[in-house]
Amino acid sequence: MMLRTAFWIVAALSVAGTAGAQTAEVAPPFVTTPPEVVERMLALAETRGDDVVMDLGSGDGRIVIAAAKQYGARGIGVELDPKLVAAARENAQAAGVAQQTRFLNGDVLKADLSGASVVTAYLLPWLMDALQPKFLAELAPGTRIVSHAFAMSGWEPDATREFPLSGEHAGRTATLYFWVVPAEVRGEWYAAQPEGEWRLEIRQNFQQIEVEGAVGDVPLRTSGAVLRGTHIGWQGEGEGEGGTGRFEGRVLTFQIVGTLTANGASRSIVFARRP
Ligand SMILES: C[S@@+](CC[C@H](N)C(=O)[O-])C[C@H]1O[C@@H](n2cnc3c(N)ncnc32)[C@H](O)[C@@H]1O
């Protein structure tokens, strides 16, 4: 019943959108995520005891409370409706996790997201899109985001899960979208090495990257470049000594620090941003 309500709200929005008549944004109503979906969301985020799980539009608090109860995580809920904030606090008290959880009354678009290591949401597409710049600006690279039912424009999920529901929702499916906030790596990087200077040019579209450059005078081409949070890697296909091999590293504030493995031997390389 609850899921059906969300369906009709989105369906109504889609129809209005295609007619070009919809301008006002409808606030996501209070529709609960079924417990089995809550479990899947927290599992997909690989929630741990040291996480701070922030649910945007926390409703009755169920996601934050489950994260605290099942994983020992700390949780923060942000909710527009003060009555739901009060209900969530009572529910947390009853579940014995009041000490680990906080419920804030406010607008998610004005909330400070920076303390979260896991963000969960069951909102609407326009609000996910409005949140996207905040996710990228405020969340540390590596922060995991899971959204029930709604994706974001432009930013491809790292994973999508679709599964059938049981019990009162039997016959329906739920969809979850998962993203890892990527480190910012676009631009030029260099490293002085015995075989010559490494120069990298990294192009970036969210978590998708392309790496190319040169080792000394030899062009460096790569394949299989990946960026997941602060982890970066690529397969070098340069000719000659320097460029070949697999690089795996971590993105720090001003450096990429990692290991190049080629012909069974490994050595560390530290790239700095081209000043
Ligand atoms: C679909 S419900 C999800 C509730 C809960 N997260 C869950 O999954 O069961 C969306 C919730 O977001 C709240 N909400 C809508 N717009 C909001 C906003 N701009 N800021 C904070 N909360 C908002 C609604 O009041 C509602 O409780």
Task: Report on this structure.
The protein is α+β, with helices and mostly antiparallel strands and 275 residues long. The protein folds into two domains: 2-180, Vaccinia Virus protein VP39 (Rossmann fold), CATH 3.40.50; 187-273. The protein has helices spanning 2-19, 35-44, 62-71, 82-94, 125-138, 240-243; strands spanning 52-56, 74-79, 101-105, 118-121, 144-148, 159-164, 173-180, 187-193, 196-205, 208-215, 218-228, 231-236, 245-251, 255-262, 265-273. It is elongated. The model is unreliable at 1-23 (pLDDT under 50). The site of S-adenosylmethionine has 22 residues, from α3 and β2.
Relevant terms:
2 domains, binds S-adenosylmethionine, seven-stranded mixed β-sheet, 275 residues, elongated, Rossmann fold, eight-stranded antiparallel beta barrel, alpha+beta, 15 strands
How many domains? The number is 2
Order of helices and strands: HHEHEHEEHEEEEEEEEHEEE
The share of residues in helices is: 25-40%
Would you tell me which CATH topology of the largest domain applies? Rossmann fold
CA radius of gyration: 22 Å
Overall pLDDT, averaged? 91
Write out the distinct hetero groups bound to the structure: S-adenosylmethionine
Give unreliable regions as ranges.
1-23
What is the number of helices? 6
Structural class: alpha+beta
Main sheet: strand order:
8-9-10-11-12-13-14-15
In CATH, the architecture of the largest domain is: 3-Layer(aba) Sandwich
| Assigned CATH class of the largest domain | Alpha Beta
CA-CA gap between termini:
57 Å
